[in-house]
Amino acid sequence: MGWSDAQLVAVAQRTGRKVVQTWSPWNRGEMGQVLGVLLHHTGTPRNGLVSPSLRIVREGRSDLQNALCNYYIDKSGVIYCVTSKRAWHAGYGNCHGYTDANVNFLGIEAESDGQEWTEATRTSYYLLVGSILRATGKDQSWAPRHAEYALPPGRKIDFSGMDITLFRRDVETVRLGGFNLKTPEQLEEEELMAAKDDIIDGVVKALVTDQYDGRSLVAREVWRQNRSDLADPKSEISKRLNELVRNAVADALKGVQS
Known about the structure:
Layout: H1 5-13, E1 19-21, E2 36-41, H2 54-59, E3 71-73, E4 79-81, E5 92-95, E6 98-100, H3 101-104, E7 105-110, H4 119-136, H5 146-149, H6 164-175, H7 184-209, H8 214-226, H9 236-257
């Protein structure tokens, strides 16, 4: 059984990097158990674009009508979730006896021409690989470069263009817990803080334009945007979020009335 969309997103989010969901329209079947991850670079020639390969890895091409990876990382380090289904990225090879890595190995395509890398891309890459290995419980032998997996030897060169030893060291730090990946609780906290900021922005705009009563808007917006978390008004999350918003609105009211 492969990962769900939600699992694919959660593993990426634990890196703390920006994650975007941009799901492929293709569905070429489910993956088997996720055992590892295969590491690629796009090979796209250098240009001024941040994510020049996103469309093709998401939508495929005429001779490969499918998603070409499960995750894509652009030059700014943004991680894109492309598909939790079977992507076509591996071809024939061997890793621990598995000769069709499309079935049991996720594929990551990172934006690089294979010679130069942005530090943002590299950082997101090792964090994501480490997060995947922590989720699967496997060691780095289950995260080969495409060149290390592909047969016959020399059929593929990716990924290349960076210090592989240093990259492996950074992945290992993440895999073994030396870098604190974000927990679901921390991610929830960040979402609540973002919701609070959105609510405050809406309140201030309403106060300035006199379109709504500020306190009524807060009550409505807090419930609308966070109703699942605020179902229990006595919960700690409910109390904390409401306190943050209440204090911010009080400050906003002072500013408008002065």
